[in-house]
């Protein structure tokens, strides 16, 4: 009986460790390249066409992970956001992310824990939205890629069928850095662009360090430094 009890305990411990390990893992995705030096924004030409991003059909998604589970949600996109195309090719753009319009999707809106988490994320420990209501991503380079030549990470949290590598300056709070990631970019009709991307990024690169790994935090309470971010964008020529 004692041997069976020990065996059962070993299975329970192994299962618990496996669960914690799986919950602690960031979503499977490609890592964004992050560099401290911001890139130069390209100048517009006479051939440049401005397409306005539709906030109602676009969003920035996020997934945060901790040992006991994960949360996911969206940020809204401000109506002044736009993409630039030239001769049918995406060349630039500016996406203004409304950090105050953060939503948590994995907790029912009627649940008081939803409002509690939203308030926590808006607070000084995370995004400090009263001081920094927006973040801005300014595209500096768009490069067509052959998906067969890049290492694609399969999974629902990765870019599906990447067609381009996008580089731009992300300004969040008081930090601005250049980031690069793969995206799927299409033009379903003249004067319309659809772009989507999913990638992992280290939140501490932008001073979002609350309960970060490597800090003096109890292991069961830390929040993974790696966050999965997604862009789902629809832009059309202004009517």
From TrEMBL:
In this record, what's one Pfam family? YceI
Q: Which Gene3D superfamilies match?
A: Lipid/polyisoprenoid-binding, YceI-like
Hey, what's the signal peptide range on this chain? 1-21
Keyword annotations: Signal
Q: Which residues form the Lipid/polyisoprenoid-binding YceI-like domain?
A: 50-236
Return the InterPro entries for the record. Answer: Lipid/polyisoprenoid-bd_YceI, TTHA0802/YceI-like_sf
Check the record and name the PANTHER family matching this protein: PROTEIN YCEI
Q: What is this protein called?
A: Lipid/polyisoprenoid-binding YceI-like domain-containing protein
Classification of source organism: Bacteria, Pseudomonadati, Bacteroidota, Cytophagia, Cytophagales
